């Protein structure tokens, strides 16, 4: 197991470059096998989730060459094999191979995906979408078997605007016959990024980023060059850290519009932000006004920033509230933050924070990726040393987190125990 040790209350100053988006990359890599020739994806973060997906592509027979931030994939020798269970279980996004292999080979067999335990995480909407396109689905207890003689465009209404289902249906529909409409589609920037990638390959997708996506099926897709958008959740996490302990703390390579739900809330709380065209500078203050947030689909307040944001409420003078509406198990960081000195009451999916609180270093557990990010933020603001266990969760999603924070003055190290 890896642990992280952080000595808190250092003033962080300097610049952090934001990496490519994890949640785009984890869809773009599986989507690559839809092309008939080489694709190059630039700005893919070096995190364990992308490593595992590259391993899966290689298992299927793709040639994957990684040169710093670019990944070149030759998908022409892809075979339709069952990805081993141990690999599939390593992350949630392995389910994107379902849509991609179904689209390309019209048949896929896959073990259930793994990933953070932040909720039940069903995939019924993905499967209903595949069925609408003409596939039949059987489940042998451990695996899904999805088969189609041919895929035909269909009008699909999503009961929930699911990110995963929207992307997976796009992957299956780009090579289907005729026109597909995805109604009540999710509008996250990662979906637009994936649609642009597929269009660069020759797909015909319109409306990505709105709630109605229209896809005209094509017969084949060719190679292309594509760039991953900056990670808006990594951006938000570092801005929150800046608001806790930053001084002239700059994050760059960002798309400020993608983090507007966060930055407008921070401005309301009195956080000192300078928002440029591709950068944001934060200067921390000793205290902020209390705030209430409710997580929503994009462009609302992102559930993935709810956990790191909670830490900032320790600096707020009075009562703040956080309501989680997407994942029923996304409050696992709260007991850890209480151990560090925060005063929190929980009632169902609403947490009430009584601030201000003095944070103190102690031993805490990272239960999932963004809970881990919240603990890093708390540890940087806390007095004394914090030890975070199960750091593997954090390394799944934050490229070079130790190096990036060390460069701006943090006292942080990872140890293997
Ligand atoms: C993606 C992100 C994750 C983020 C989430 C919401 C990736 C790899 N992960 O997850 O970081 O927290 O979006 O912004 O991009 N649902 C169903 N049936 C389905 C699919 C989803 O009921 O078939 C429900 C889920 O249980 C959840 C809600 O819909 O309550 C949203 O899930 P979804 O948008 O699909 O999240 P993911 O794509 O898994």
CATH first level of the largest domain: which class?
A: Alpha Beta
In the sheet with the most strands, the strands line up as 21-22-1-23
- Helix share, percent: 25-40%
Give the CATH architecture of the largest domain: Alpha-beta prism
Explain the overall architecture.
The protein is of the alpha+beta class. It folds into 2 domains: 2-18 and 230-416, UDP-n-acetylglucosamine1-carboxyvinyl-transferase, Chain (Alpha-beta prism), CATH 3.65.10.10; 22-227, Enolpyruvate transferase domain (UDP-n-acetylglucosamine1-carboxyvinyl-transferase, Chain, Alpha-beta prism), CATH 3.65.10. The protein contains 14 helices and 23 strands. The chain has a 4-stranded mixed sheet. Strands 2-14-16-15 form a 4-stranded mixed sheet. A 4-stranded mixed sheet has the order 4-5-3-13, covered by helices on one side. Strand 17 (292-294), helix 10 (303-312) and strand 18 form a beta-alpha-beta unit. Helix 1 packs parallel to helix 2 (48-59). It is globular. The chain starts with a strand and ends with a strand. The relative contact order is 0.16. The mean pLDDT is 96. Bound molecules: uridine-diphosphate-N-acetylglucosamine. Uridine-diphosphate-N-acetylglucosamine is lined by residues 23, 26, 92-93, 119-126, 160, 162-165, 186, 303-304, 326-327. Residues 23, 26, 92-93, 119-126, 160, 162-165, 186, 303-304, 326-327 line the site of uridine-diphosphate-N-acetylglucosamine.
């Amino acid at each position: 197991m890896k642990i992280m040790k952080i000595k808190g209350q250092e003033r962080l100053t300097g610049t952090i470059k934001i990496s490519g988006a994890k949640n785009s990359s984890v869809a773009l890599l599986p989507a690559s096998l839809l092309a008939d020739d080489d694709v190059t994806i630039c700005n893919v973060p070096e995190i364990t989730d992308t490593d595992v997906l590259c391993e899966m592509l290689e298992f299927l027979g793709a040639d994957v060459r990684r040169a710093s931030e670019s990944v070149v994939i030759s998908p022409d020798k892809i075979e339709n094999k069952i990805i081993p269970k141990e690999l599939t279980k390593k992350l949630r996004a392995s389910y994107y191979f379902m849509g991609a292999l179904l689209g390309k080979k019209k048949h896929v067999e896959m073990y259930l995906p793994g990933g953070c335990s932040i909720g039940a995480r069903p995939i019924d909407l993905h499967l209903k979408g595949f069925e609408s396109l003409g596939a039949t689905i059987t489940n042998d207890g451990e695996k899904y078997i999805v088969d189609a003689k041919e895929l035909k465009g269909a009008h699909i209404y999503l009961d929930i605007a699911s990110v995963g289902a929207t992307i997976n249906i796009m992957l299956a529909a780009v090579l289907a016959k005729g026109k597909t409409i995805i109604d009540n589609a999710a509008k996250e920037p990662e979906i637009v990024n994936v649609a642009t990638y597929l269009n660069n390959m020759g797909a015909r997708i319109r409306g990505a980023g709105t709630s109605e996506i229209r896809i005209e099926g094509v017969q084949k897709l060719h190679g292309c060059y594509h760039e991953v958008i900056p990670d808006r959740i990594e951006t938000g996490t570092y801005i929150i850290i800046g608001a806790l302990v930053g001084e002239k703390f700059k994050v760059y390579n960002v798309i400020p519009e993608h983090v507007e739900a966060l930055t407008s809330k921070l401005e309301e709380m009195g956080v000192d932000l300078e928002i440029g065209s591709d950068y944001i500078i934060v200067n921390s203050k000793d205290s902020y006004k209390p705030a209430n947030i409710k997580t929503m689909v994009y462009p609302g307040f992102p559930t993935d920033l709810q956990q790191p944001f909670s830490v900032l409420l320790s600096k707020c003078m009075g009562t703040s509230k956080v309501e989680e509406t997407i994942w029923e198990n996304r409050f696992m960081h709260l007991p850890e933050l209480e151990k560090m000195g925060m005063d929190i009451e929980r009632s169902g999916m609403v947490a009430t924070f009584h601030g201000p609180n003095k944070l103190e270093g102690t031993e805490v557990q990272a239960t999932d990726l963004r809970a881990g990010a919240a603990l890093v933020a708390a540890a940087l603001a806390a007095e004394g040393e914090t030890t975070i266990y199960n750091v593997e969760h954090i390394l799944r999603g934050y490229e070079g987190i130790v190096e990036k924070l060390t460069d701006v003055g943090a006292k942080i190290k990872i140890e293997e125990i």
